Amino acid sequence: MSAKGPLSGVKVLDLTAVVVGPSCTLTLAEQGADVVKLEPPEGDLLRKLGGPAPSPDMSPKFIHFNRGKRSIAVDLKSAAGLAVLARLVDQADVLVTNMRSGALERLGITWEALSARNPRLVFCIIAGFGKRGRYHDSPAYDTIVQGASGFAAALGRVLGEPRFAPFVLCDHITGIIASQAITAALYARERSGEGQAIEVPMFESMAHFVLTEHMFRRTFDPEGPTGDPRVMNPDAKPIPTSDGYIAVSANTDAQAFAFFDAIGRPELRDDPRFNSVGARFRNVDAYFKLRAEALSTRSTAEWAAEFRRREIPAMPYNTIEGLLEDPHLWEAGFLRRENHPTEGPMIGLGRPVTFSAAGPDELPLAPRLGADARSVLADAGYTEAEIAALIGGAVLAPPG
Amino acid sequence: MSAKGPLSGVKVLDLTAVVVGPSCTLTLAEQGADVVKLEPPEGDLLRKLGGPAPSPDMSPKFIHFNRGKRSIAVDLKSAAGLAVLARLVDQADVLVTNMRSGALERLGITWEALSARNPRLVFCIIAGFGKRGRYHDSPAYDTIVQGASGFAAALGRVLGEPRFAPFVLCDHITGIIASQAITAALYARERSGEGQAIEVPMFESMAHFVLTEHMFRRTFDPEGPTGDPRVMNPDAKPIPTSDGYIAVSANTDAQAFAFFDAIGRPELRDDPRFNSVGARFRNVDAYFKLRAEALSTRSTAEWAAEFRRREIPAMPYNTIEGLLEDPHLWEAGFLRRENHPTEGPMIGLGRPVTFSAAGPDELPLAPRLGADARSVLADAGYTEAEIAALIGGAVLAPPG
Question: I need a labelling partner for B246 at 20 to 30 A (CA). Which of A101, A119, B73, B240 fits?
Answer without folding.
Answer: A101
